[in-house]
Amino acid sequence: MEWRVVADIAVGLAVPAGAAGLFALGRISAREVLFVVLGFLIGLSFELFIGLWPGFIVFKMHWPLPMDTILVSHSLWDAGIFMVGCVLAGVVLRRRLGGGCARFDWRELGIMVLWGAGSAFVVELIGNGVMWEYQP
């Protein structure tokens, strides 16, 4: 199996494993675990859109596993990216770890939106044309 496939799945699995480990150690609360699930669901909504639209995207690398595995793996990646955004918002706003997203805050939303757009841009720069390609 190609190293990129192994790395893709390993990083995807590391996100829920890391969240479960941090929760077991008492480093994150159940609320943060729910944020991981929320990040997964947000990512899954995009991944399913791509997966259900035949011909929209062409994978340039061989994926030897069922297509569902790439959708789940990338949704788990998205959960991790979402959690980095939550931590980033807390750092910028000088809140204790896990102290964010307790109530609505425009500044926090702005940071998360900027993080989401920026991280999506970087992912597209890295992967588009190398690992996948969009078809008009």
Overview of the structural elements:
The protein is mainly α. It is 68% helix and 4% strand. It contains 4 helices and 2 strands; from the N terminus they run H-H-E-H-H-E. The chain has a two-stranded antiparallel sheet with strand order 1-2. Helix 1 packs across helix 3 (67-92), helix 2 (30-52) crosses helix 3 (67-92) and helix 3 crosses helix 4. The radius of gyration is 16 Å and the shape is globular. The two termini are 30 Å apart. The mean pLDDT is 89.
Biggest sheet strand order reads 1-2
Q: End-to-end distance, in Å?
A: 30 Å
Number of helices: 4
Task: Tell me, briefly, the overall form.
Answer: globular
Which range best describes the helical content: under 10%, 10-25%, 25-40%, 40-55%, 55-70% or over 70%?
A: 55-70%
Low-confidence stretches: none
Mean pLDDT: 89
- Rg (CA only): 16 Å
Main sheet makeup: 2 strands, antiparallel
N-to-C SSE string, H for helix and E for strand: HHEHHE
Give the total of beta strands: 2
Structural class: mainly alpha
- Beta fraction of the residues? under 5%
